[in-house]
Amino acid sequence: MKMNTRNLVVRSIASALAVVLLVGAGSLVFAKAKDKGERVISIKVKRFEYSPKEITLKKGVPVVLELKSLDVPHGFNLPELGVRADVLPGLTARVRIVPTRTGRFVFHCDIFCGTGHEELEGAIVVKE
Amino acid sequence: MAAHINRRDFLRLAGLGGVVFASGLAYSASAATSKDSKLEEFYWVQLSDTHWGFERPPVNPDAKGTLRKAVQEVNRLPHKPEFVVFTGDLTHTTDDPAERRKRMTEFRDIVAGLDVKTVKFMPGEHDAALDRGKAYRELFGEPSYTFEHKGIHFIVLDNVSDPAAMIGDVQLAWLKAHLAKLDKNARIVVFTHRPLFDLYPQWDWATRDGAQAVDLLMPFANVTVFYGHIHQEHHQMTGHIAHHAAKSLIFPLPAPGSLPKRQPIPWNAAEPYKGLGFRSVEAAAESASKYEITEYPVNKA
Fold first, then answer.
1. B279 neighbors B2 (Cβ within 8 angstroms)
2. Distance (Å, whole) CA A39 – CA A55
């Protein structure tokens, strides 16, 4: 099969549109969160580190994670809480989390970003 | 078939191969039987996750020798396999495009020592994700393709050239169109790098749109998937489709979710090469969905 240039361009345009939608949805999430006085936590991502790497939340208290990439495209995937986002350079990804159970939940990058990609992870700790 | 009997007898008498796993299901065996003259017995060898260029002595102090040992082991098999397939991560990732090509060239030169007529390749994310498969295509060709061999329809799926670990709509459409030409009882084997199902997403052991490929394959009675990525033997069913993960030839990884972190199992000097190996897969004649998998170590070379 040939994955020709045209296909790649179509994919890129589709991705760009998806990003616009994500950013739009993220802005809405952010505006609503601000209205409600919800806590917004900023997370910076670069090869190969999330900063902060560990975030402590309180069970039942919603927060908005605001993610920015400082270099290349990264992912933010938190499967146990059903949350994922593309974190693309120059854009802000926002995801709202309402932690409903206590525990330590690992998040990781799911867009291959280089030699240390497989070590790029962090954790959300939810306490009572 | 004499060769078949001899090979099996050899395995039994010599005690070669650690584990024999018979893949196949009673309810799919009715799709074709030994009376079906289209079914032929033969075997191939699967090697995976060789990560040429990886250098971490505490994990594998023989990183430059393990692949060569595996090549020697394959060449020592008493009967030549019909073909050898590498299911991705041929090389260890590097940010340097020149170094990537150098590693691929070295890998290709080493595996040229395999005493078989046909060697099939596919990329892993370490080979292809950083440049969307550009270097891989230069050295190995298209990352997804099909081929026929003795009544089996082989499909190679690329779920790594997209750095987001997706097969993608274009390739899924190609797969759908391709499958539309096949009989529902066709004997189908899929080779891919990452699991097509959510094996353990917490460790990124999944393909984001893998379920769409499985859905497309589901109407077919005799489908088996062989893959790599997780550096260990693993067998799982999605419906009637069997998925078999292969060992690595550089370092083993822990069982899914068995440790807090996914990290290589360190080298054990008391048991060198433990957890590493390759496998043979024998297509049985008595059933279109039956495969006999034999695991081989690499420490005898």
1. no
2. 12
Average per-residue pLDDT in chain B?
90
Residue B174 has its nearest CB partner, among A1, A14, A114, at: A1
pLDDT tens column, B167-198: 999 999 999 999 999 999 999 999 999 999 99
Q: Does A106 touch chain B (CB under 8 A)?
A: yes
- Dist CA A60 CA B268 (whole Å): 45
Residue A40 distance to chain B (closest CA, Å): 24
Q: How far apart are CA A4 and CA B180, in angstroms?
A: 22
Both tokens assigned to B138 = 């230069």
Tally of CA atoms within 13 A in the half-sphere of B265 that contains its CB? 22
pLDDT tier at A121 (50, 70, 90 boundaries)?
Answer: very high
Q: What is the ipTM of this complex?
A: 0.84
- Identity of residue A22: L
- At residue A35, φ and ψ (nearest 5 deg) are -60, -40
What is the number of alpha carbons within 13 Å of residue B181 lying toward its C-beta? Answer: 6
Instruction: Tell me the two tokens of residue B253.
Output: 């990884």
B11: amino acid identity, one letter = L
Specify the pLDDT at position B52: 98
pLDDT of B7 reads: 53
Find out whether B288 and B28 touch, Cβ atoms under 8 Å: yes
pLDDT at B10: 46
**Strand B84-87's sheet: what is its strand order?**
B20-23, B291-296, B278-283, B42-47, B84-87, B119-122
Q: pLDDT by residue (tens digit) across B223-242?
A: 999 999 999 999 999 999 99
Per-residue pLDDT band for B287 (boundaries 50, 70, 90) equals: confident
pLDDT at B30 over 60: no
Integer Cα distance of B196 and B208 in angstroms: 8
B interface mutation test: which of A2, A3, A71, A88 has the most B CBs within 10 A?
A: A3
Confirm if A95 and A85 have CB atoms less than 8 A apart.
Answer: yes
CA distance B160 to B214: 17
Q: Which residues of A are less than 8 Å from B261 in CB distance?
A: 121
